[in-house]
Write a structure and sequence with these properties.
The protein is rod-shaped, with a radius of gyration of 64 Å. The strands form two sheets. Strands 3, 4, 6, 7, 8 and 10 form a six-stranded antiparallel beta sheet that branches. Strands 1, 2, 5, 9 and 11 form a five-stranded antiparallel beta sheet that branches. The chain contains two helices and eleven strands; from the N terminus they run ααβββββββββββ. By secondary structure, it is α+β, with helices and mostly antiparallel strands. β6 and β7 form a beta hairpin. It has a domain of 121 residues: Jelly Rolls. The protein is 22% helix and 33% strand.
C-alpha cells in the first residue's frame, strides 16, 4: 500500500468520527417540540326549560339568603326610676285668744280675739278648720260663732259654726278659705234669739302635707 493511500484512509476515518460526534451532539442539544394544547369544545345541551329551571333555583337561593339575614337586636336600655317621695300629713293647732258673751242677734266682735294669718306661712297647706268652745245660756235657740277678715271687711268663708247646747261644747266649722297674704282676723259671735251666747275659747286646726 502506498503512502498516499494510507494518508487517505486516515483522513476518511477522521471524517467519519467527526460526523458521528456531530450527529450525537445534535441529538443531545435538540429540544423536543412542545405538543400542541388540547382543544376543548363546549356543547350547550341545556335547552330553554333547563335554563328556566336554573334561573328559578338561583332566584330562590337569593331570596332565602335575604330572608335568613339576622335582624340586629337593639341594645337594651336600662332606665332607673327614683321612687316618689311619700308625703307626710301633719296637723298644727293655733290657739286663739279672747272670750265673751252676747245677746245680740247681729255679729259682734269677741274682745281680744284679733290675730294675723297668712296661708303662705304653712307650706303644703291642705286645709284649715275653726274650732270653738261655746254654749247657749238656756239651750233654747242657737248660738253662732265665726271668723271675720278685718283686712277685707268680710266674713271668712266656711268659718261659721253653731250650737244649741246649754253646756260648753266644742264645735267645728267647715273648711276655712283665707285670702292670700297677711290679713287681720278676729272672732265674732251672735245669738239667734235674745238668749246669751257664750264663747269661751277657740283654735285653728291646720293640716299640711309635705
Amino acid at each position: 500500500m502506498s503512502k498516499e493511500v494510507k494518508i487517505l484512509l486516515v483522513i476518511l476515518g477522521t471524517l467519519d468520527l467527526l460526523a458521528v460526534n456531530g450527529a450525537v451532539g445534535y441529538l443531545l442539544t435538540k429540544k423536543p417540540k412542545p405538543s400542541a394544547a388540547p382543544q376543548v369544545s363546549y356543547i350547550d345541551q341545556c335547552g330553554d326549560e333547563c335554563k328556566k329551571y336554573i334561573d328559578a333555583q338561583l332566584k330562590s337561593q337569593n331570596l332565602k339568603v335575604k330572608t335568613e339575614t339576622p335582624t340586629p337586636t337593639p341594645a337594651t336600655k336600662i332606665v332607673y326610676q327614683t321612687a316618689p317621695k311619700t308625703k307626710v300629713r301633719s296637723t298644727t293647732y293655733v290657739t286663739l285668744a279672747g272670750s265673751g258673751n252676747t245677746t245680740a242677734t247681729d255679729w259682734v266682735n269677741v274682745s281680744g280675739s284679733d290675730f294675723y294669718f297668712n296661708p303662705a306661712d304653712y307650706p303644703g297647706l291642705v286645709s284649715v278648720y275653726f274650732e270653738a268652745n261655746m254654749k247657749l245660756m238656756t239651750g233654747s235657740g242657737r248660738a253662732y260663732v265665726r271668723l271675720y277678715d278685718v283686712t277685707h271687711g268680710i266674713g271668712v268663708q266656711g268659718s261659721e259654726a253653731s250650737t244649741q247646747a246649754g253646756v260648753d261644747t266644742v264645735v267645728e266649722s267647715g273648711q276655712v278659705s283665707f285670702w292670700a297674704g297677711r290679713n287681720l282676723i278676729r272672732v265674732q259671735m251672735k245669738s239667734l234669739t235674745t238668749e246669751s251666747t257664750f264663747y269661751t275659747s277657740g283654735r285653728l286646726r291646720i293640716i299640711t302635707e309635705n
